[in-house]
Amino acid sequence: MYNPNQIPWHQDESLVTYFEKTGVSRRKFLKFCTEMSVMLGVTSLVTPRIVNALAALRRPSVVWLSLQECTGCVESVLRSAEPTIGDLLLDIISLDFQENLMAAAGFAAEKALQDAMTLNKGNYILIVTGSIPTKESGVYTMIGGRTAEVILREAAAGAAHVIAVGACAHWGNVQAARPNPTGAVGVRDIITDKPVVNIAGCPPIADVVTATVVHMLTFGKVPDLDREGRPKFAYGAKIHDQCERRGHYDAGQFIERWDDEAARQGYCLYHMGCKGPETFSPCPIVKWNSATSWPIGAGHGCIGCTEPHFWDTMTPFYTRLPNAVGIPVERTADILGGVLTVGALAGIAAHATFTGISRTRTRRELPILEESRRPPPDGPPL
Ligand code: SF4
Ligand code: SF4
Ligand code: F3S
Fold first, then answer.
1. Is the CB of residue 205 below 6 angstroms from any atom belonging to ligand 3?
2. 150: Cβ contacts below 8 Å, ≥ 6 apart
3. Fewest C-beta in 10 Å: which of 105, 201, 348, 352?
4. pLDDT in tens, 15-41
């Protein structure tokens, strides 16, 4: 459970000084920096640069707007079973304005927002969760008598960087699903004069948000993005190419009912509607809840929550979508089966070599290739 730190970080203190005050050891700090460089996919030669940049850091200001949303993203980013230094970093940078966490309410909260934007004009990081309703002049989300769009435009104007956290903030998510009654749009539809980083997912993985912020604080710029605005270090590979069940897919071993023997054996969920072949996300590697599990690991197919407008493009969730992407998924699943295994594994290995996330895989000992090399367990006739 996340606990906001009560020890203030003064403006003139470096992060190292602050950590000394709060009892965070140098070893823990270095471990965090190493983990961040692994997550960002940079070589170990860059780790000292991250260490030096963060150590010298003066208290960075973050303004976090919660617009038309469910607060699930805030829960995901800030809640953890075991508080880590990553939580601590987010705690620190989130303090200037975060409505769900701050004690202030009403006029005091509005003043805190204005103060944060004025004092740190041009320097703060703006994090946004939630969509922006545009129909009926935006009346569907009003805070302090102003629409979400007005608040967002004002906050983005003075921000150094803008991060849209979650599917609501980037594509409008379920609110924007047909027929989109509130005219919900994402941040990038409103803010067009600066890059908007999209930490995709419903909700997204907290470690990806942390790594993105660390990148900005270390290098002073946003990480490389794909055409959807997602950081390539995290969203550069398909779920399907990192999935622990991929060996079963290649062997033509599929679950056909939620309670069949194949389900008990952990076979592939493609016939149950899994959208892993069309979805780019680090979920199989970084995982959730202190890296204990993830949707497919828990026995449910991926519903494609990191992809644009997934409520419209990935539904029905429990029906497979044939050939939705460039590769003939149906054909490989139903006809070619096991004969593809060797080639597919070679492809996975080659791809993994070039992704930063693959290094996280090694560290977290997710044995994708080892798993796939094992003979498939006995199951029912398929
Ligand atoms: Fe909630 Fe999902 Fe929107 Fe995040 S992206 S605020 S979890 S609906
Ligand atoms: Fe994994 Fe889904 Fe691909 Fe099967 S279809 S291997 S469950 S991502
Ligand atoms: Fe979302 Fe699929 Fe990951 S549903 S949480 S991208 S496994």
1. no
2. 138
3. 105
4. 778 778 877 788 888 887 888 888 787
